[in-house]
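seq as requested:
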Amino acid sequence: MPNKIELKMIDNGLDFILRSFNDLENNELKYTALHLYSGVLLILKERLYNVDEKLIFENTNKYNRNSLRNGNFQSVKYETLLSRLKEANIIIQNEFKAELDWLRSERNKMEHFHVNIRIEALKSHIVNILIHLVPFIKNELVYNYFLDEDDEKLQFIIEYLHKYNGYIKAKLKSIEQQEHLKIQMIDGLQCPYCSNDTIIIEGDSEAYCYFCETRFTDFEVEYINENYNLHEIAIDGGTDPRYECIDCRSQAMIYIEDSHSYICLCCGVWYSAEQIATCARCESQLVYNKYPDEPAFCDYCLDFFISS
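struct tokens:
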């Protein structure tokens, strides 16, 4: 939208979340909840604002650019906010919404009444909110180009969470419980950024890490550069870890020791070690081992036999 007014809601939202971390460190959990709630709402409003700026007015008929510019208007309320996001096909996962509903209820109690709540219970809810919030920020703001992926505040939030044991355990448990994700992940195939076995290769060297929520557009290169030094291998005469993929023919298939499997970093196809053999003639190409008791040959060597 031309001449868009810069409200800096996302900046303020990230500031509130960072403030909630300070409160968390000091066991000021009341303020952790209050600041986190304010931060999350500002981030959701930012996403709605990027659909249409008038939508952040509770009454869109009262939309006025001058009011928007000076902040003299009633902004969209919680229920209206979620409803308008849904109408705009911006997905708020049910688990995320349930945690936000809980946080909103507790926040209202904390502001007006004395509330007794177990510390560990509150921490658990806070962690669950953050588990859903980070992918929302990445998918709805970063990957839609409303927020720079290298934004300093966002990076600080991610780095903090990746060192917070409660978050790490809850995030990995959340992934573990999603069977459709687990069956696509390969033990030992670590994310180049967070080192967790939470990568799914989507094809054409694109991949996504479900722990750090990183989207890779050239996963093969990033993975190889993180785990191997091809320059040293070439100079010292070492063995290149890459094989030609049996399926897509890219030079991107590697052996993963932890899972005893071969996986292509480009197309994502994988085979157990028992399904794969080395060509009996050239001893360099991988082939599908259909008959384990018989020699197997790659297409190049089969063509050689035919033409001989």
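The chain has a mean pLDDT of 89.
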